[in-house]
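Entry
Fold in C-alpha cell form

___
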Amino acid sequence: MLAKVASCALVGLEGALVEVEVDVESRGLPSLAIVGLPDEAVKESRERVRSAIINSDLTYPRHRTAVNLAPADLRKEGPAYDLPIAVGQLAASGQIPPELDGALFVGELNLDGTVRHVNSILPVSSFARSGTAASPCPMCPR
C-alpha cells in the first residue's frame, strides 16, 4: 500500500515541499530503502523509526518498504524526516488513517517514540502557514 506524507526541506532561508512516499509491499524480504538524495542522518532514520514505532506499542511493518523523498534533485539533510517516514509507514501499513492531507510532518524521533525539536523550524512553519513560497505546499491548509 502507498502513503504520501508532506514534509519540508530548508533551501537557503526558505522552506520547500518534500513529499515522502512510502510503499509497503507484501512480497519480498523485510527491508527499508530510502531514496531521493538523503544524507547520512536521513539514512540513519531507519533505526530511529523502527525503535520508535516498536516502543510506541505499534507494529513495525515486516515487509519490503521503499521510501522516496521527492523531489529527488533536492538534498535532504538531518533527522527531520524521521517523523514523516514513521507516519508514512504507519499509514501504508493500515495502522493509522491514510488521509493525511492538510498536515506537514517534521521531527526527529527518540527511540521511545517521542518527538524531538529540529533546527530551522521557523522557516518550515512559515512555509507551511503561508503557502505562498516559490513551491507552495499543496497538501497544507492555507
